[in-house]
Amino acid sequence: MDKLQIVGGKRLNGDITISGAKNAALPILCAGLLTAGDLELTNVPRLHDVKTILRILAETGLKVDHDDERVTLNGSGIDKLEASYELVKTMRASILVLGPLLARFGEAKVSLPGGCAIGSRPVDQHIKGLQALGAEISIEGGYIYAKCKKLKGARIHTDMITVTGTENLLMAATLAEGETVLENAAREPEVTDLANLLVKMGAKIDGIGTDRLVIQGVPELHGAKHAVISDRIEAATFLCAVAATGGDINITNTRTDIFDVALDKLRELGLDMVVGANSIRATMNARPRPVSFRTTEYPGFPTDMQAQFMAVNTIASGTSRVTETIFENRFMHVQEMNRLGASIQTEGNTAFIKGVERLVGAPVMATDLRASASLVIAAMAAEGTTVIDRIYHLDRGYDRMEAKLSAVGADVVRIK
Ligand code: EPU
Known about the structure:
Blueprint: E1 3-7, E2 12-17, H1 22-30, E3 38-42, H2 48-59, E4 63-67, E5 70-74, E6 82-83, H3 85-88, H4 98-105, E7 107-111, H5 124-132, E8 136-140, E9 143-147, E10 155-157, H6 163-174, E11 179-183, H7 189-200, E12 204-206, E13 212-216, E14 224-227, H8 232-245, E15 247-252, H9 262-268, E16 272-275, E17 280-284, E18 293-294, H10 306-313, E19 319-323, H11 332-339, E20 343-347, E21 350-354, E22 363-365, H12 369-381, E23 385-389, H13 392-397, H14 401-407, E24 411-415
Parallel strand pairs: 2-15, 3-14, 6-7, 10-11, 18-19, 22-23
Antiparallel strand pairs: 1-23, 1-24, 3-5, 4-5, 7-9, 8-9, 11-13, 12-13, 15-17, 16-17, 19-21, 20-21
Helix pairs in contact: 1-2, 1-7, 4-6, 5-6, 6-7, 8-10, 8-12, 10-12, 11-12
The structure holds uridine-diphosphate-2(N-acetylglucosaminyl) butyric acid (EPU).
Uridine-diphosphate-2(N-acetylglucosaminyl) butyric acid binds at residues 22-23, 26, 92-93, 119, 121-126, 160, 162-165, 303-304, 326-327, 369-370, 397.
């Protein structure tokens, strides 16, 4: 298993290009199941999760042509309406094939995703929504079996805001008969990017970017070309990195209009930023100030940035308080940061962080994607050497992170 060895204390200086967003690319690739036409996608990030979803899609008979950041899909030969446990168990987003397969072919068999490190993450809302659209669904032997003659539009109000739930139901509704209204829809920019692609494919969707999506079903969708939106979480992760190490970086190929409160919080902790339309120049020359926040759905503070901001808070000039409201177990990085000398205590879903003067390198273990990124940040700010084990989590969702960091002066080496 690969590890990352990081020698801390190096300031970051230079340019970093941001890749396409993982959480937009995954649903968008699944949209290839909705049409017999060609879907030509660019700005697709080079990630392990992208490879996994492409394997799942290829198993259905979807033709996949993958060349670096370009992917072309053709869905004219799909003949297996199934996603197997072997692949689904490695990535929960695989559930995104359920809505499209069912809507286009009237049938799907998809493994029920298991638990995961950050929480139980059930998919009951996906199932409830598809049932409201007329699907018959049963669960047997760990598989979801879904069937319908033709999905029929309905009004669906999910019990909570769910990102992939909204995406699954949105994709299904594009081919349902009549009107579907999705109330309490997720407003994340990645949902909007999927909706924009579906419109290019011929879908009729109103309310894009709001919590009420109104979809008029159409008989079929056609091929389209689309560039995946830039990854706001990747961009904010690098901004946290420079806030922790000090330095001067310029991030490019970003979309600064879709940043949530993360940019305000970065300013609050002392990062000096010049924000252009597609770039951010960020300078940090002082010890970070502590920032407190609660994670919520977009446009609130993203749960996917909680761990990285906590890493900065560990060396801030005071105390802070971080509350996680989206996932019930997303503090696995806390014990690892404490191994580096941080002073963090948790009480339920709140962490109390007392900033320390310095962190000191130690062996630590990555537990999930964003926890891995937060440990990379903490290690770069620490004195001495840190070795991060189980770094495969990082490869799932960050496009060549260590190469991008090395290019701006970090001392990061992968140990095979
Ligand atoms: N939930 C249910 N039932 C459902 C669906 C969700 O109880 O049917 C609960 C979840 O357990 C959770 C909350 O609702 O407590 C929100 O979960 P959501 O469905 O929004 O999460 P997701 O769609 O599974 C996506 C991202 C996550 C990101 C969350 C929240 C993708 C592929 N994944 O997950 O990304 O944290 O939304 O913004 O889009 C990551 O990139 O590291 C990551 C985990």
